Each structure stands twice: as structure tokens, then as C-alpha cells.
Amino acid sequence: MKARHRYGISLTPLIDVVFILLAFLLVYSNMDVSKALEIALPQVEGQASETTPDALNLTLDKTGKLYLGGVNLSAEDAAKTLSGLASRINNREVILLVRSDRDARAEDLVKLMLLLSSCGILNADVAVETP
User: Fold this and answer.
1) 81 and 57 Cβ atoms separated by less than 8 Å
2) Is residue 19 very low, low, confident or very high in pLDDT (cuts 50, 70, 90)?
3) Which segments within the chain are labelled E, that is strand?
4) Predicted TM-score (pTM) of this structure
5) For helices 75-90 and 106-118, what crossing angle results, to 10°?
């Protein structure tokens, strides 16, 4: 009896290479969710705020929802998280960037500032854009 030989291309090395490329792209891709939130920053004359990629973004949208790093949080959850980071934010180890929609209610913005004050945060940058 003759042994049959199978001719063809083995797909195993190809699949290995594809998985390695996929893992590489997932690890080294920049997934900044905070930029996916569509808000219109207030416009002011002068210099626009400089955004740093490692800043912790605290975003207030026009409906009054609060996002910390792109994740929707209640005021209580944000207070717990920010209280834990207060000393690092005040020492500028972590930069807190407050991003508020220009159509957000003033009442919501005041509540956000009171939340930051109650957490003991003294240093926070406010994101604006130039016209």
C-alpha cells in the first residue's frame, strides 16, 4: 500500500503571525476614549490649553453627565476616585484636565467645581479652545 502525500500550504504559521500582529496592535494602539466624547469646548481669546496625553480627563457634557477618563460616573463614584488621587493631583504627579461643554448648564459646572473642592483638589486645568 502506498502512502498518500498531501500537498498544500500549512496555515498554522500564517495564523500565528496574524495573532502576533493583532496582539501587537492591541498593546501599542492609543485608545483614548475621552476624545471620543463629542463636546464643544468654550472659546476664549488668547492661548488654547495644552493637552497632554497622560492627563486625567474629567468631562462634563451638555446633559450634565460626568465622565472620568471616558467612563460615565455618578458624582459619588467620581468623588471617591478623585479623593484618592487628590494628593497626586495637587503635587502635579497627575494632571487633571476639566473639559466642560460650552452648552453645559452653569449649575452643573458649579457642582463640579464644588465636587473638586470637597475632594481637596487645588490644581486643575480647564480645557478651552481659541476661536
Assistant:
1) no
2) very high
3) 56-60, 66-68, 71-73, 96-100, 125-126
4) 0.62
5) 60
